[in-house]
Amino acid sequence: MTKILLGEPDLPLATLVALSRPGHTIALGKDSKRRVAACRAEVDAAVRSGRTMYGINTGFGKLAGVRIESQKLGQLQKNLLLSHATGVGEPLSIEQSRLAFALRIHNLALGHSGVRPLLIEQALALWNADLIPVIPRQGSVGASGDLAPLSHMALPLIGRGEVWSGGKVISGQAALKKLGRAPLELAEKEGLALINGTQIMTAIGCLVVAQAMRLCRTADVACAMTLEALRGSERPFDARVHEVRPHEGQGATADNLRRLLHGSKIIPSHKDCARVQDAYSLRCAPQVHGAAKDGVRYALDVLVTEANSVTDNPLVFGGDVISAGNFHGQPVSQAMDFLAIAVSTLANISERRIEQLVNPDISGLPPFLARDPGLESGFMIPQVVAASLCSENKSLAHPASVDTIPTSANREDHVSMGVTAARHADDVVRNTAKVLGIELLCAAQGLDLGEPLKPGKGVHAAYRALRAEIPGLDGDRFLAPDLKRAEQLVLEGAMVAAAEKQVGALAV
Hints:
The chain has helices at about 15-20, 30-50, 75-85, 95-110, 115-130, 145-155, 170-180, 190-195, 200-230, 240-245, 250-260, 280-285, 285-305, 330-360, 360-365, 380-395, 420-450, 455-465, 480-490, 495-505; strands at about 1-5, 25-30, 90, 130-135, 135-140, 160-165, 170, 315, 320. By secondary structure, it is mainly alpha-helical. The protein has two domains: about 1-195, Fumarase C, Chain B, domain 1; about 205-310 and about 325-400 and about 415-505, Fumarase/aspartase (Central domain) (Fumarase C, Chain A, domain 2). The longest helix is centred in the C-terminal third of the chain and has 32 residues, at about 420-450. It starts with a strand and ends in a 5-residue tail after the last helix. About 55% of the residues are buried.
C-alpha cells in the first residue's frame, strides 16, 4: 500500500489519478502540519481581536453584513453544511468522490484555510478507511466553489450524510462509529473552509484529462490501422510537411503515425496505384488529432494547477484574513469546455474513417465489411451508432462556461458552471471511446478482408491485441457485446500499450 503525502503543491496527474483508486493511504508531511497549526493560531487570534471577518463571524453571501454572536460561531458553521447540502441527482462515481475528498484535504493542508488539525485528522481517518462520502452530481454553479456537493462531502465529518463502505451506502454516523470517532464539533471558519472550493469539478476534470490523453494516442493507432486497411498513403506524414507548420500536437501525431506504420508490407504494395490523394480523415489526421492533443494538454496544465491550489475563502496570510475569489471555477470550466470540443473532434474524424471503411464506393472492400454482403449487414449499424454518438457530442460540447446565471440574491452575479462543463466533458470522452472502439473493429475487419500482407509493426501489435479479445466477423452475430468490449479496451489503453511495446511511447 502506497502512502501519498498531501499538503505540498506538487502532485502530478499520475498521483492525482492514483488518489481516485483504492489501495493507497494519505497523510500530511511535517511542513504541512506546521503550516496548518500556525494558520489556525492566526484565525484564533483574529477571532479574539473582535474584528469583523467574512464567514468567520458573519453570515454568508447576501447575509455577509450580519454579525454573529461569538457563542454561536460553531453553530453557524454547522448550519452552513446542513443548509447547503442540497445536491440532487445520481451520485458521482466513487472514483470521482474519492479524488475530490483527497483534493479537499490537500487544499486545507496547504495551510491558508485556517482549520484545526483535528478536522484534517477526521477527514484522513475516513479517507484511509475508504469511507468515501456519497456526493450528488448536480446542484453546483461553480461560483463560490462547488457549494452543494462539497457540503455533502463534508457532512460525514460531523456524523451526517452518507458514505460508501464496501460497495454499500451507510450513514455518516455509522461510518464514524466504525472508526471509533465522535462527530466533529466545528469551530470558526471550518464549515466555510470545507465547502468553498473547486474540488468537485477538478476531480472530475483530472480523471477526464487522463482518459482524454489515452484517447489521443488511441486515435492515432486507429487511424494508422484504418489507413492500412484502406491502402492509404503515408506521404502526408512526412516530417518535412510538419516542420513548416510546427504546432506541437500536429508534429507529435505525424511522428506517431510514421512509427506505427513503420515496416508495413501493405503500403509499398500499392505505391503505384491510381489514387492521388486520401480523404481528409486520413490525410489531415496530424492536423486534426494534433489540435485535439493541444487542447487536451492545455486542460492538463489547468487541472494540475487547480488541483494543487488553495481555492477556499477567506484565505489566511499571516495576520491578514482576505476575502477574495479563488473559489470561482472559470479556469476549470473553460478548460473542460475546450477539452470537450477537442475530444469531440477525435470522434468526428473517427466516424468519417468508419464511413470510409464500410462504404464500398470508397473503400474497395466488401460493402459494410461483410463476408456475404446482402445476406449479412456486417458493420452497417455500428457506423450508425458512431454517427449517433458524434451527434450527441456536438450537443455536449456546447460550452457551459459561457452560460452564467446570477445566484444568491445577485451577490454571486457571475458563475462558471464548472461541474456541468466537467460532467459534459466526461460524457464526451466516454462517447468518443465507443466511437474509437468501433473504428478499431472496422479497421481490423478491413485488414482481415484485404490481401494477406502484414501492416506496420505498431499497427500489427494493436491488431493482435484486439483480436485476442474480439474475433473477426465471419457472418452476422450479436455485435453489442463486441462494441462494449472494444470500448473497454480503448479505455484501458490495451491497443496503445501493445503498439508502444513495438514502437516506443506515443506522444500526446
